[in-house]
Amino acid sequence: MAVQDDSSPPRSPGGRWVPYDYPNWYHLIRDGVGCLWCGRAGSVHADQMHSAAACLACETVQCNSDSECAACFYGWMPNWSRGLSPDSRSRQCGYAHCTNDAVAKAPRVGRVCKDDLSRPKVNGRPLTDVIEGHRRAALDHQGGGQWQWMTWREPAKPEPRAEQKAEA
Questions:
Q1: Residue 132: CB partners within 8 Å, gap ≥ 6?
Q2: What are the CA-CA distances from residue 95 to residues 75, 77, 88, 105, 110 (Å)?
Q3: For residue range 59-83, what is the model confidence (pLDDT) as tens digits?
Q4: Each residue of 8-66: pLDDT tens digit?
Q5: What residue segments make up the domains of the chain, in order of their start?
Q6: SS3 of residue 119 by DSSP
Q7: Would you say 62 and 35 are in contact if contact means Cβ atoms under 8 Å apart?
Q8: What does pTM read for this prediction?
Q9: Phi-psi region for residue 56, left (φ > 0), alpha (ψ -120 to 50) or beta?
């Protein structure tokens, strides 16, 4: 599952998917506690933005501000702990004899790796189809509600300084 396929508009490197309502959160940016990209507070670094990361299941690039993907709802974001015990078993696929790192939560087995992503079923549908459906609803606004939608943002262009404007 790629975030960008032939039907998606081209995306430049350095941008990311953010919540559709990100302008509603600018008061947090003004107050110095919100991310410059998504507007949300929480885990904001000194430079006032979340780090960008791709979901381990659907590869949607977004602010790494939560442990679960905001686009597909099942995938996990990198560098977040999984489970109560931080040992290697809490990061492994839940299928027997599979020791791959898990990338998403899954019904019945708890967690699943990229190779086994199509094995679990959600209401009779493979998890890969469910993830793709949620991703399409979020990124392409095909269904769902605005609370679920995401929009692509390019990196901010720096404003020319006042003396540069005066010279022009």
A1: 1, 58, 72
A2: 17, 20, 14, 12, 9
A3: 999 999 889 999 999 999 998 876 6
A4: 544 556 789 999 988 888 888 888 788 888 888 776 766 678 888 999 999 999 999 88
A5: 16-147
A6: coil
A7: no
A8: 0.80
A9: alpha
